Fold this sequence. Notes:
Elements: E1 3-6, E2 9-12, H1 16-27, E3 33-38, H2 40-48, H3 50-58, E4 61-64, H4 67-75, H5 86-99, E5 104-108, H6 111-124, E6 130-134, H7 143-153, E7 157-161, H8 166-174, E8 182-185, H9 189-193
Parallel strand pairs: 3-4, 3-8, 5-6, 5-7, 7-8
Antiparallel strand pairs: 1-2
Helix pairs in contact: 1-5, 2-3, 3-8
Uridine-5'-diphosphate is lined by residues 108-110, 136-137, 161-164, 187-188, 190-191.
Amino acid sequence: SNKSLLLGIPFANINRHRALDIVTKTLDQRSSSNLFFINAHCLNTAYSNSEYKKALQKASIVLPDGSGVSYACKILGGHLTENLNGTDLFPYLCTLFSKKNKSIYLLGAKPGTVDQLEALIKLQFPALKVVGTQHGYFPPSETNKIIDQINHSGADVLLVALGVPKQEIWISQHQHKLSTTLNIAVGGLFDFYAK
Ligand code: UDP
């Protein structure tokens, strides 16, 4: 099977090509999917945070990010097919979303950072529609207003950069109110690209 298990967290032990295939399929589904990434720090966090653990267990796709996961697989007598972190996958996802004519909404990071990323995407992927941005330092009282804005934007894909485990818990908690098809937790990705 291409499902592996680490500390009770199932993840897809597959290569990039197959991962992009699965993402493509989720875009055509009526129900929404969550895509999360796990590294060694995530596994540690999940061990003591049951809400985060549950969010990971319920996700449609969990991909392995980093050498810690690879090492853990080896210790357990297994083998990691490919390290599939969000940062490396991002350009492929942008290409895929623009080919499929799917729009994206960027939620998270500092105000300047999320705006810089929007500008960078417009430059590097002109065919990809960024239909909205919102920085990640809003009070909980604004959550419903932000969800309304995301839904109003018509975004197909929501990228959430609020850090682990806040972002996975946030997505999981609000998935039923979001009209997006795919929600992706991306951690420090906005900071990485917005330079
Ligand atoms: N962040 C945010 N709101 C918060 C906490 C964090 O928008 O309340 C952002 C932060 O600015 C950064 C990202 O979430 O862009 C988390 O980055 P980090 O590298 O800490 O992520 P991790 O790899 O721990 O998930």
